[in-house]
Protein backbone atom coordinates (compact mmCIF):
# COMPACT_ATOMS: atom_id res chain seq x y z
CA UNK A 1 0.00 0.00 0.00
CA UNK A 2 1.32 3.43 -0.99
CA UNK A 3 0.34 5.76 1.86
CA UNK A 4 2.38 8.86 1.05
CA UNK A 5 4.09 10.43 -1.96
CA UNK A 6 6.87 13.02 -1.64
CA UNK A 7 8.83 14.39 -4.57
CA UNK A 8 8.73 17.14 -7.15
CA UNK A 9 5.76 18.20 -9.25
CA UNK A 10 6.29 17.31 -12.89
CA UNK A 11 2.98 18.63 -14.20
CA UNK A 12 -0.61 19.21 -13.13
CA UNK A 13 -3.56 18.02 -15.20
CA UNK A 14 -7.26 18.76 -14.87
CA UNK A 15 -7.83 16.08 -12.22
CA UNK A 16 -4.38 14.77 -11.35
CA UNK A 17 -0.76 15.64 -10.65
CA UNK A 18 2.38 13.79 -11.74
CA UNK A 19 4.91 13.70 -8.91
CA UNK A 20 8.46 12.60 -9.67
CA UNK A 21 9.93 10.54 -6.84
CA UNK A 22 13.61 9.91 -7.59
CA UNK A 23 12.97 9.33 -11.28
CA UNK A 24 9.68 7.45 -10.92
CA UNK A 25 6.55 9.39 -11.86
CA UNK A 26 3.36 8.77 -9.87
CA UNK A 27 0.00 9.96 -11.18
CA UNK A 28 -2.09 11.08 -8.20
CA UNK A 29 -5.73 12.08 -8.59
CA UNK A 30 -6.82 15.04 -6.46
CA UNK A 31 -9.78 17.34 -5.94
CA UNK A 32 -9.82 20.76 -7.63
CA UNK A 33 -9.15 22.39 -4.27
CA UNK A 34 -6.07 20.27 -3.56
CA UNK A 35 -4.71 20.69 -7.09
CA UNK A 36 -4.99 24.47 -6.77
CA UNK A 37 -2.98 24.36 -3.53
CA UNK A 38 -0.11 22.30 -4.93
CA UNK A 39 3.08 24.15 -5.92
CA UNK A 40 4.23 24.79 -9.47
CA UNK A 41 6.09 22.22 -11.59
CA UNK A 42 9.63 21.71 -10.36
CA UNK A 43 8.79 22.43 -6.73
CA UNK A 44 8.60 19.94 -3.87
CA UNK A 45 5.26 18.49 -2.86
CA UNK A 46 3.90 15.72 -0.67
CA UNK A 47 0.51 14.09 -0.32
CA UNK A 48 -1.02 11.34 1.75
CA UNK A 49 -2.38 8.79 -0.67
CA UNK A 50 -4.97 6.06 -0.92
CA UNK A 51 -4.56 3.29 -3.48
CA UNK A 52 -7.74 1.99 -5.09
CA UNK A 53 -7.41 -1.41 -6.69
CA UNK A 54 -9.83 -2.59 -9.37
CA UNK A 55 -9.65 -5.67 -11.57
CA UNK A 56 -8.00 -3.76 -14.42
CA UNK A 57 -6.99 -0.50 -12.77
CA UNK A 58 -4.78 0.93 -10.03
CA UNK A 59 -5.35 4.56 -9.03
CA UNK A 60 -3.70 6.77 -6.43
CA UNK A 61 -5.69 9.55 -4.78
CA UNK A 62 -3.93 12.33 -2.89
CA UNK A 63 -4.77 14.47 0.15
CA UNK A 64 -2.90 17.14 2.15
CA UNK A 65 -4.00 15.75 5.54
CA UNK A 66 -4.80 12.36 7.01
CA UNK A 67 -8.23 13.67 8.04
CA UNK A 68 -9.14 14.38 4.43
CA UNK A 69 -7.86 10.96 3.40
CA UNK A 70 -10.03 9.29 6.05
CA UNK A 71 -13.07 11.24 4.87
CA UNK A 72 -12.41 10.04 1.33
CA UNK A 73 -12.33 6.44 2.52
CA UNK A 74 -15.49 6.88 4.59
CA UNK A 75 -17.40 8.51 1.74
CA UNK A 76 -16.56 5.50 -0.44
CA UNK A 77 -18.56 3.28 1.92
CA UNK A 78 -21.78 5.05 0.93
CA UNK A 79 -23.82 3.28 -1.72
CA UNK A 80 -23.50 5.04 -5.06
CA UNK A 81 -20.47 7.13 -4.06
CA UNK A 82 -17.35 6.27 -6.01
CA UNK A 83 -13.92 7.87 -6.02
CA UNK A 84 -14.96 10.64 -8.42
CA UNK A 85 -17.97 11.65 -6.32
CA UNK A 86 -15.98 11.43 -3.10
CA UNK A 87 -13.32 13.78 -4.49
CA UNK A 88 -16.03 16.13 -5.76
CA UNK A 89 -17.63 16.33 -2.31
CA UNK A 90 -14.29 16.98 -0.62
CA UNK A 91 -13.33 19.46 -3.30
CA UNK A 92 -16.54 21.42 -2.84
CA UNK A 93 -16.70 21.38 0.97
CA UNK A 94 -13.32 20.34 2.34
CA UNK A 95 -13.14 17.96 5.31
CA UNK A 96 -14.46 20.62 7.73
CA UNK A 97 -17.44 21.33 5.52
CA UNK A 98 -18.25 17.65 5.07
CA UNK A 99 -18.15 17.17 8.84
CA UNK A 100 -20.53 20.06 9.42
CA UNK A 101 -22.92 19.07 6.65
CA UNK A 102 -23.27 15.51 7.92
CA UNK A 103 -23.50 16.50 11.58
CA UNK A 104 -26.25 19.02 10.74
CA UNK A 105 -28.04 16.69 8.34
CA UNK A 106 -27.55 19.31 5.62
CA UNK A 107 -27.73 17.22 2.46
CA UNK A 108 -28.22 20.36 0.36
CA UNK A 109 -24.63 21.32 1.17
CA UNK A 110 -23.42 17.92 -0.08
CA UNK A 111 -25.52 18.30 -3.23
CA UNK A 112 -23.44 21.27 -4.43
CA UNK A 113 -20.62 18.85 -5.33
CA UNK A 114 -20.34 18.30 -9.05
CA UNK A 115 -22.16 15.14 -10.17
CA UNK A 116 -23.82 14.47 -6.81
CA UNK A 117 -27.62 14.39 -6.95
CA UNK A 118 -30.19 14.82 -4.16
CA UNK A 119 -30.65 11.09 -3.51
CA UNK A 120 -26.92 10.47 -3.23
CA UNK A 121 -26.48 13.52 -1.00
CA UNK A 122 -29.22 12.26 1.32
CA UNK A 123 -27.61 8.82 1.50
CA UNK A 124 -24.28 10.40 2.44
CA UNK A 125 -25.87 12.26 5.34
CA UNK A 126 -28.06 9.38 6.51
CA UNK A 127 -25.42 6.65 6.29
CA UNK A 128 -22.58 8.64 7.84
CA UNK A 129 -24.36 10.63 10.57
CA UNK A 130 -23.26 8.17 13.26
CA UNK A 131 -19.73 7.86 11.87
CA UNK A 132 -18.92 11.56 11.46
CA UNK A 133 -18.21 12.17 15.18
CA UNK A 134 -15.33 9.70 15.07
CA UNK A 135 -13.55 11.65 12.33
CA UNK A 136 -14.40 15.00 13.91
CA UNK A 137 -12.65 13.79 17.05
CA UNK A 138 -9.44 13.27 15.05
CA UNK A 139 -9.01 17.03 14.76
CA UNK A 140 -7.48 18.57 11.62
CA UNK A 141 -4.13 16.79 11.83
CA UNK A 142 -0.92 18.13 10.32
CA UNK A 143 -0.36 18.56 6.62
CA UNK A 144 2.23 16.30 5.05
CA UNK A 145 5.41 17.93 3.76
CA UNK A 146 8.26 17.44 1.33
CA UNK A 147 11.67 18.97 1.96
CA UNK A 148 10.18 21.30 4.58
CA UNK A 149 7.46 22.43 2.16
CA UNK A 150 4.06 22.13 3.85
CA UNK A 151 0.99 21.80 1.65
CA UNK A 152 -1.55 23.91 3.44
CA UNK A 153 -5.28 24.18 3.00
CA UNK A 154 -5.88 26.72 0.20
CA UNK A 155 -7.90 29.88 0.61
CA UNK A 156 -9.74 30.20 -2.67
CA UNK A 157 -12.29 32.70 -3.86
CA UNK A 158 -15.28 30.66 -4.89
CA UNK A 159 -19.04 30.84 -5.06
CA UNK A 160 -19.02 27.93 -2.67
CA UNK A 161 -16.68 29.51 -0.15
CA UNK A 162 -18.08 30.41 3.24
CA UNK A 163 -18.07 34.14 4.08
CA UNK A 164 -16.62 33.54 7.54
CA UNK A 165 -14.23 30.82 8.74
CA UNK A 166 -15.85 28.19 10.97
CA UNK A 167 -14.47 27.30 14.36
CA UNK A 168 -11.35 25.18 13.97
CA UNK A 169 -11.72 21.42 13.77
CA UNK A 170 -9.44 21.18 16.79
CA UNK A 171 -11.86 23.21 18.90
CA UNK A 172 -14.81 21.22 17.53
CA UNK A 173 -13.08 17.94 18.38
CA UNK A 174 -12.40 19.10 21.94
CA UNK A 175 -15.98 20.27 22.38
CA UNK A 176 -17.25 16.97 20.99
CA UNK A 177 -15.11 15.05 23.47
CA UNK A 178 -16.39 17.18 26.35
CA UNK A 179 -20.02 16.55 25.42
CA UNK A 180 -19.36 12.84 25.09
CA UNK A 181 -17.92 12.86 28.61
CA UNK A 182 -21.14 14.48 29.76
CA UNK A 183 -23.10 11.54 28.41
CA UNK A 184 -24.48 12.93 25.16
CA UNK A 185 -24.85 10.53 22.21
CA UNK A 186 -22.19 11.00 19.50
CA UNK A 187 -24.61 11.99 16.73
CA UNK A 188 -26.51 14.35 19.06
CA UNK A 189 -23.29 15.98 20.27
CA UNK A 190 -21.88 16.28 16.76
CA UNK A 191 -24.98 18.08 15.51
CA UNK A 192 -24.89 20.56 18.37
CA UNK A 193 -21.16 21.25 18.00
CA UNK A 194 -21.47 21.70 14.25
CA UNK A 195 -24.36 24.14 14.68
CA UNK A 196 -22.46 26.04 17.37
CA UNK A 197 -19.39 26.27 15.12
CA UNK A 198 -21.55 27.62 12.32
CA UNK A 199 -23.19 30.18 14.61
CA UNK A 200 -19.89 31.26 16.19
CA UNK A 201 -17.17 31.43 13.50
CA UNK A 202 -13.69 31.23 15.01
CA UNK A 203 -14.95 30.32 18.48
CA UNK A 204 -12.62 28.60 20.92
CA UNK A 205 -13.46 25.37 22.75
CA UNK A 206 -15.15 26.84 25.88
CA UNK A 207 -17.48 29.03 23.81
CA UNK A 208 -18.35 26.09 21.58
CA UNK A 209 -19.19 23.91 24.57
CA UNK A 210 -21.45 26.56 26.10
CA UNK A 211 -23.25 27.16 22.82
CA UNK A 212 -23.66 23.44 22.17
CA UNK A 213 -25.06 22.84 25.66
CA UNK A 214 -27.64 25.60 25.10
CA UNK A 215 -28.69 23.89 21.86
CA UNK A 216 -28.98 20.55 23.66
CA UNK A 217 -30.94 21.94 26.60
CA UNK A 218 -34.58 20.78 26.76
CA UNK A 219 -36.93 23.27 25.12
CA UNK A 220 -39.88 24.69 27.00
UniProtKB/TrEMBL annotation:
Domain (DNA helicase Holliday junction RuvA type): residue spans on this chain: 1-62
Species annotation: Salipiger marinus
InterPro entries attached to this UniProt entry: DNA_helicase_Holl-junc_RuvA_I, NA-bd_OB-fold, RuvA, RuvA_2-like, RuvA_C, RuvA_C_sf
Residue span(s) of domain Holliday junction DNA helicase RuvA C-terminal: 171-217
Name of the protein in its database record: Holliday junction branch migration complex subunit RuvA
Gene Ontology BP annotations: DNA recombination; DNA repair
Highest classification ranks of the organism: Bacteria, Pseudomonadati, Pseudomonadota, Alphaproteobacteria, Rhodobacterales
Keyword set includes DNA repair: yes
Gene Ontology, cellular component aspect: cytoplasm; Holliday junction helicase complex; Holliday junction resolvase complex
One Pfam family linked to the record: RuvA_C
Domain of life: Bacteria
